[in-house]
Design brief:
Beta-Lactamase
C-alpha cells in the first residue's frame, strides 16, 4: 500500500477510535492491553498512556533502552501539538519532502514523526492525550496501539488495521 492509502486509513482510525472518557481507569485499561500484547508477543517496547501533562500508564518491557523513552517523549510531542498520530504526521512529511524543522521550525530533538503515538480522543472533548509505543518499526508501533484501542473499545481490529505492505 502507498502513503496516501495509509493516510486515508489512519484518518479513519482516528475518527473511529473515540473514547467515552480518559480517566485513570481508562488509561490503565489501554496501557494494560498494550502491555499484554507486548508480553504475549515478546516485544521490546516502551508503553506510555497519558492525558496531556499527566502520565496514566507506563511500562518498559525487557530489552528496551533509555533511547526508547526519548522516542516516546518526542512522538508524544507530535500528538500534543498537531492532534494527529505521529505516523500520520510522518507520512505527510514524506509526501511533502519536508521535515517539521523546515515547515514549523521544530527541533528534531523534541519532535519525532515516526509511528507509535496515537491521539486519544474523547467524545465531546476532542484530543486530550496519547497512547504511545516505541521499540518496533514505526508502522508496527502505530498498529500495536490501534490494535490495543480496538480491543479496549470492543472494535474489530480487522476493520481498522492498515493494509499489508
Amino acid at each position: 500500500m502507498g502513503w496516501n492509502e495509509d493516510l486515508e486509513r489512519i484518518a479513519l482510525q482516528e475518527r473511529e477510535l473515540i473514547l467515552p472518557r480518559l480517566d485513570a481507569e481508562m488509561g490503565w485499561a489501554i496501557g494494560s492491553q498494550l502491555r499484554a500484547l507486548a508480553h504475549d508477543r515478546v516485544l521490546a517496547v516502551v508503553i506510555d498512556v497519558r492525558r496531556f501533562g499527566q502520565p496514566l500508564f507506563y511500562a518498559a518491557m525487557e530489552e528496551t533502552t533509555p533511547d526508547n523513552v526519548e522516542w516516546v517523549r518526542r512522538k508524544n510531542n507530535v500528538v500534543a501539538r498537531f492532534h494527529t498520530s505521529s505516523y500520520y504526521a510522518g507520512i505527510k512529511e514524506k509526501i511533502k519532502g519536508q521535515t517539521l524543522t523546515e515547515t514549523q521550525g521544530l527541533s528534531l530533538a523534541d519532535y519525532a514523526t515516526h509511528g507509535g503515538a496515537f491521539p486519544l480522543r474523547v467524545a465531546g472533548a476532542g484530543v486530550v492525550g496519547s497512547a504511545t509505543v516505541s521499540g518496533l518499526p514505526m508502522r508496527a508501533d502505530h498498529e500495536l496501539v490501534v490494535e490495543a484501542l480496538c480491543a479496549v473499545l470492543g472494535r474489530d481490529y480487522a476493520d481498522l488495521k492498515l493494509a499489508m505492505d
